[in-house]
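[retry 2/3] Pro-sigmaK processing inhibitor BofA: previous attempt timed out, resubmitting with same input.
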Amino acid sequence: MMKMILSLVLIGSLLLLGYIVFSRRLGLAWLTRLGLHVVLAALGIYIVNFSGLLTETYIPMNPVTISTVLILGLPGVGLLLGLKLTML
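[retry 2/3] Pro-sigmaK processing inhibitor BofA: success.
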């Protein structure tokens, strides 16, 4: 029963999101901005990993860490560093 309710919520949200994208005529500019932000997030993690400032820390580049930095920006890199240092 719960699986069916969650599936209906997912389908409903996808339909509403599709309606917003196609009714507002957003175009493809948002894809360009999203791609730029993903590249900048990966670059921020890369700089932290290979700068040599913190030699004992390494933040892996995977979808979870990149999306964390994508959502939070550069403070997200600080958050990941703080988590990594406290987990050591």
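[retry 2/3] Pro-sigmaK processing inhibitor BofA: The helical segments are 2-23, 29-50, 63-72, 74-87.
[retry 2/3] clearing retry counter.
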